[in-house]
Amino acid sequence: MHLGLDEPVRECQYNPICTRNSSSMETSGHKKKRTPRRKWQIFPGRNRFYCNGRVMMARQTGVFYLTLILIMVTSGLFFAFDCPFLASNLTPAIPVIGGVLFVFVLGMLFRASFSDPGVLPRATPDEAADLERQIDTSNGPSGPGYRPPPRIREVVINGQTVKLKYCFTCKIFRPPRASHCSLCDNCVERFDHHCPWVGNCVGKRNYRFFYLFILSLSFLTVFIFAFVITHVILRSNRTGFLSALKDSPASVLEVLVCFFSVWSIMGLSGFHTYLISSNQTTNEDIKGSWSTKRAKDNYNPYSYGNILTNCCAALCGPLPPSLIDRRGFIQPDTPQPVSHSNGSSIYTSTQLQSHMAAATPLLHSDPVMMGGEGPTLPGKSSLGGPCASLTPSQPSLPSSMPGLGCAGDMLTLRDPDTHCHHHHFVSPEETPSPGPMPLPLPCPAHMTHGGHMNPAQLYDPASQDSLHEDSVRGLVKLSSV
Q1: Residues 370-401: pLDDT tens digits?
Q2: Active-site residue flag, 195
Q3: Disulfide check for 114: which of 55, 122, 442, 462 has CB 3.0–4.6 Å away?
């Protein structure tokens, strides 16, 4: 190409070339912009969360709204049509008492409906796999016609043997008095029942609020019913019965609603008063868990033997904290359960954890002794320290693995003088900080063409990030074998 003399000569400009991997920079920049997610957003159960996870309810909330409408409409009609006449002719304390009862009923209803009933967290993939291995080991070898025994563990509480059942959905042995709710798809601690009227399960953390709700609602219903009848009678003595109904037509609706609902509400309050006095749950009473019909020596090991003590333990004891931490942030290296429409869950992990799950105390063959309700049995195993060696109870590496070869993105080392294969992996967190960081060696087959190693390729800084990702990916593949 010919350049004219009148054209100015352009100066060459050299742009610095970034030696780092561009994909890793884009990924890191994308991660910085991504807002952290909370645990309630990937909660595996069938629940609905509102107010950024502060409100937790079941999915079937239609009956809850019906309960709320009935309470508010009936109370509103009472305050609008009956309370003015009663306050002027009897005493102004009637609307005050009715208002206090109404506020207390709504407060207990919201507290029971919007709180965590005591959901037990599900096992992580590592804990579930470790539990399955120990169950298979305790059951012995399996043959073609072998049928595994039921997954049950036994504990002794105050001299009474209690069976702990294995939950195939949550992958845990349920603690005593816990049960799996089929509607919410959660294991609930001290499960009483699933109440559609409050739109939530009733368990250890909201049972007292549920009981105070139905007890105060029975008082409010009787209070409204009694004073509506009083209002109609007093107005009938002055103007006649028909004129009284014309002057206050809402009183008829209030009487009908209160008359048909007071029997069920009072009956439910009496039934739960009996359960609290004997320290039982609705689930245990329906199943007859502590009935003498099952066995002559059968008794309730959770009862304190005193009605007052049982009531204080159920209503005045300390409220246990929530175990699911639904408003906590998701850590990037923890497994994340993803819920599906059929109730099943799939766990995804972004980084391999270098810790093995320790065995729970419930996996031993000997029964566990507990006193009273005792300490809460762990619903999931705790994580132990780093895995230094592979024990017989842990999964062993395949013996057919090549000694030095390139299987995908994985490199293994073999001692040529012995027949025993030793595999030792060091994660970036376990590398000693004083010494220099060793560079990851890529597979020779990927680096050379004629069998000779190129030093420029070995120490190329642009490939270090991708090589580190390949080594981590190889560890993930090896651990899944």
Answers
A1: 554 444 433 443 333 333 333 333 443 333 33
A2: yes
A3: 55
